[in-house]
Amino acid sequence: MSKPYSYHIFYFPFKWEIENRKDKLFSEQVNLESLHFSENDGWERVQYNQPGDFRLMNEQQKQEVRELFAEQNYYFDFVHPVLYDIQGKPDPMIAHFERKETKEESRKVTYQIKVKDKQEYVLDLEAINLNLYSTGVGVLSFFLANKATTHCEEEHIRDINQFGRRIMPPHYGEIISRGMLSEYICIEGLNGYAGKYREDFSGYTPADIWKPASFICQLIADLHPGMIATPVIDDRMFVNSCYVNKDLSKEIAVDDPSLEKERLKEFILGKFWYKYVYVDNGQWDMCQHDPMKEQLLNRATYFRWQKYGTLFGISRYSFVLLKGIGAEYIETHMATLYSRMIELALVQRASMLRFSSEVTSLSNLTGQDRQKLLQKISSLYKEYIRFVNQVYFREVTAQEQGIELYDLLLQQLNSEKQIEYLESEIRELHQYVAIVEEQTRTGRMEWFSWLAIIFVPVSLIIGVLGMNSIFDKEYLFLWDYFLYHLLFLGGMIYLTYLIFKRKKW
Fold first, then answer.
1. 388: exposed, middle or buried (C-beta count within 10 Å: 0-12, 13-18, 19+)?
2. Backbone angles phi and psi of 311, in degrees to 5
3. Cα–Cα distance list, 335 to 163, 292, 427 (Å)
4. 309 and which of 35, 110, 324, 364 could share a cystine (Cβ 3.0–4.6 Å)?
5. What angle is formed at CA 6 by the lines to CA 318 and CA 321, rounded to 5 degrees?
6. What are the Cα distances from residue 481, in Å, to 460, 487, 491?
7. How far is 300 from 314, CA to CA, in rounded Å?
8. Beta strand 94-99 with 311-314: parallel, antiparallel or unpaired?
9. How far, in Å, CA of 236 to CA of 391, rounded?
10. Phi/psi at 148 (5° precision)
11. Can you name the residues that pair with 95 across neighbouring β-strands?
12. d(CA 162, CA 159)
């Protein structure tokens, strides 16, 4: 089997909702155990279970077990529940699904990208995964191998990343111009009628705001027809790309200290690296100021293996690798270890945006029943605490390179500032709940105080006159006095009722 010239993984992070759950508490909306998934020939839920006898496995199964063993040793064990759909785990954080057609050896599934005035790029679609998380977000990912000799040049790799990731028009004029948008994206080889998983973007109208490509919607609908998927980050998918090019690799594999700085600067400011890292394939770079460009790329580039001709680049849009021939394990790491890391970082950011959206929504529900609103806020706060403890990690591995790459990824995604903003929003919402509850307690105390005021005169009369003696003849002259108090008592009770009704204590 030929080795790919490049490997690409596209990640589509989205917010998921079920139509008939929108009025429920947030914890009920995002409960994975209560979802009922379609039973069809497409998706299957794949859960992690302790592997059986290694000696009885075929070679493919053994390879999968080896890779999973390496992953689980790479990541801290407390991170595993959000990385793996563990069988038998109550209230899971993740439900993991894989497309079955891509696993059939006799079937060829391809991801096709037609670029205007250029060739059609046809990539082997090796896997399609769909992960749903209990924070109300999901990630749909496509694992693509580029093995065609007609797609191996620098421009081809950039075209695949640029046009293959775009899943909606960035602006309405793109439907005609197609400068950043492909003519179509099509998945061939899956079960279903012709054109079921195809999008040419010609049917978009000005009303189709934040509507992902039809093949995205169809794949998600295959799993759950009632699931509404809304992009939460961008109109593009996140790109994980590994490109093997020995000539480019030689340009950066400088072992002479006197030349290293100059050659690296020349490479970074050259035609390839900026466009590769920032997923841009236009005629000109989208940064036309060299000092700024150099600064951006120095922040986005991981130089640890530069002398080996290997560079990592991380931006808000991508996690890319350039390498030469050899060290194939790095390519495996891009599709396994680092793919897990990328998805975790995307889930964290998508979840923060989902929580922020819920905070905004709850802040606008001023006309709702106060008790119901407080329940919704409390439910959201509970799920936020769970997110902080089980999804948002500042460290996920003890491996030095993993720590550095993860830090750079979070830095580029601006995750630390986003979590600070979210904490502030959640804290203010929680403080609102505390203030309302304190007001409710104070109101109840006032209610009891009014009751005490009302019944003090009655208690006084009964205490002075006695319950029985009031009906004696010698005390009949006091009946008028008693009736006055009775009328006063009735008036006070009615007034208290009106106050109670108005304040809704």
1. middle
2. -130, 140
3. 20, 31, 38
4. 324
5. 40
6. 13, 10, 16
7. 5
8. unpaired
9. 23
10. -85, 135
11. 132
12. 5
| 71-76 contact pairs (CB < 8 A, 24+) | 71/336, 71/337, 71/340, 74/337, 74/397, 74/399, 74/402, 75/340, 75/396, 75/397, 76/393, 76/395, 76/396, 76/397, 76/398
Q: Tell me which residue of 19, 3, 108, 49 sits closest to 332, measured CA to CA.
A: 3
Alpha-carbon span 176 to 202, nearest angstrom: 8
Q: Please, what's the b/e burial string for 171-194 (b: 16 or more CB within 10 A of its CB; e: otherwise)?
A: eeebeeebebbbbbbbbeebeeee
- Whether the Cβ atoms of residue 140 and residue 98 lie closer than 8 Å to each other: no
DSSP string, 273-339: HHHHHTT--SSS-S---HHHHHHHHHHHEE-TTGGGT-EEEE-SSEEEEEE-SS-THHHHHHHTHHH
CA-to-CA dists, residue 114 to 64, 158, 174, 200, angstroms: 33, 14, 15, 9
Let me know: does 75 contact 81? Beta carbons within 8 Å: no
Q: Tokens at residue 145, please?
A: 């191998």
Burial class for 103, CB neighbours closer than 10 Å (0-12, 13-18, 19+)? middle
The residue to which tokens 């204590």 are assigned: 505
How many other β-carbons are positioned within 10 Å of the β-carbon of residue 457?
14
Among candidate residues 225, 13, 240, 222, the one with its CA nearest the CA of residue 133: 13
φ, ψ for residue 15, nearest 5 deg? -95, 130
Q: In sequence order, which residues have a C-beta less than 8 Å from that of residue 70 and are 6 or more positions away? A: 336, 337
Specify whether the CB–CB gap between 190 and 122 falls below 8 A: no
* pTM assigned to the model: 0.85
